[in-house]
Amino acid sequence: MLQIDTWKRVLIWLVCVTGLLLALPNAFYTRVEQSNDAQAAIELGNDTPELQAQAAEWPTWLPSSLVNLGLDLRGGAHLLAEVRVQDVYESRMEAMWPEVRDALRDERATVGTIRRQESAPDEIRVRISQPEGMPRALEVVRGLARQVQTLTGVGATDIEARADGDTIVVQLSEAEKLASDDRTVRQSLEIIRRRIDEVGTREPTIQRQGADRILIQVPGIGSAGELKNIIGTTAQLTFNPVVNRGTDPDASVGIGEEVVPSIDESGVYYIIESAPVVTGEELVDAQPSFDQNGRPAVSFRFNTSGARKFGDYTRDNIGAPFAIVLDDEVISAPVIQSHIPGGSGIITGNFSVEESTNLAILLRAGALPAGLEFLEERTIGPELGQDSIDAGKVATIVAFVAVLTFMALSYGLFGIFANIALIINVGLLFGLLSLIGATLTLPGIAGIVLTVGMAVDANVLIFERIREELKSAKGPARAIELGYEKALSAILDANVTTFITATILFAMGSGPVRGFAITLGIGILTSVFTAIFVTRLMVVMWFERRRPKTIEV
Amino acid sequence: MRLKLVPQNTSFDFFSRWKVWLGISGLMMVVAFASFMLQGLNFGIDFRGGTTIRTESTQPIDVGTYRDAIAPLELGDVTITEIFDPTFGEDENVAMIRIQAQADAEAVEAATITAVEQALQAVIPDIQFVSVESVGPKVSGELIQTAVIAVALAIGAVLVYIWLRFEWQFALGAVAALVHDVILTIGIFSELQIRFDLAIIAALLTIVGYSLNDTVVVFDRVRENLRKYKKKDLKEVLNISINETLSRTVMTSVTTLLALISLYVLGGDVIRGFVFAMIWGVIVGTYSSVFVASTILLWLGVKRDWSKPSNTAGNQFANIDA
Question: What is the ipTM of this complex?
Answer without folding.
Answer: 0.83
